[in-house]
Amino acid sequence: MSLRLVVSVLMIITTVALGMIAYQLAAPVRPAVTSTLNEGPISPLQTGYFVAAHPLPAGTFVRDEDFGLKSALPDQVPANAITDLPENRASLRGALIRRYLEAGAMITQADLLRPRDRGFLAAVLEPGTRAVSLAVDAVSGVSGLIWPGDRVDVILTQEMEHTVAPLARRVLSETVLTNVRVIAVDQDIVRSAPADGATAGHVARTVTLQVATDQAERVTIAQQLGHLALAVRAIDGPTTAGTEQPTLFSGDVSPALSKTEQPVGVKVQVIEGEKRNEVTFQ
Predict the structure, then answer these.
(1) Taking residues 82-90, what's their average pLDDT?
(2) Beta strand spans in the chain (E)
(3) Full residue range of the structural domain in which residue 237 is found
């Protein structure tokens, strides 16, 4: 009797187990839920398009880390979406955001202003400022290590005529612009250019500065007076313009030049008949 009961229980358990297996095989497969911002590889059956990885205020220069990806079937990609293609990603790098974008918002062409687009430089400038370019070389341009976004002082050095100034005051240097922002180096307006690209190690030929209207006039005149050099300011330094710097003369740098200067006395011409003599009174 007990053996028959055991056999019956085993048959019931086996029947239930087989029924559960059959139900699982017959049940429809639920689709996998994907993240809103997909940072991993996208299924070959889907197309990725760019969205904002985090809130992007207007005026932001976008970088690779500012992009997120959403995926959809090719026929379900929203209109005006920028798909994840290598050429699209390269063209987005360094673009300027024209309006505020929430995290996860789709990025469209209308939201961006690229460095080669008309009006890009004007959009980069702060209200009430101007852009002025300086010619630089390896020395005056700090060996090509100046980048857009850096703040610099502009130093003018000029040499006076020997008939105008004594040797100790013949060469002078003065700061004509203080704490101005670099907005472009040659035609690069963004800092995120790849270090291993074609411009790696390239020494800039022009640097474009953001200045006030009166400063644009000062630097234009300074370029005609003598040699201009850029001095990079510390990144944690004050963002406001500093106090006026005094003019520095060659004699201030080299006391030996001051010692070589002979004191100039009063010169008087002494006329005796047809003779003329010049006498200097010390």
Answers:
(1) 86
(2) 47-52, 67-72, 96-97, 112-113, 130-135, 151-159, 171-185, 206-211, 227-232, 248-249, 266-272, 275-281
(3) 128-260
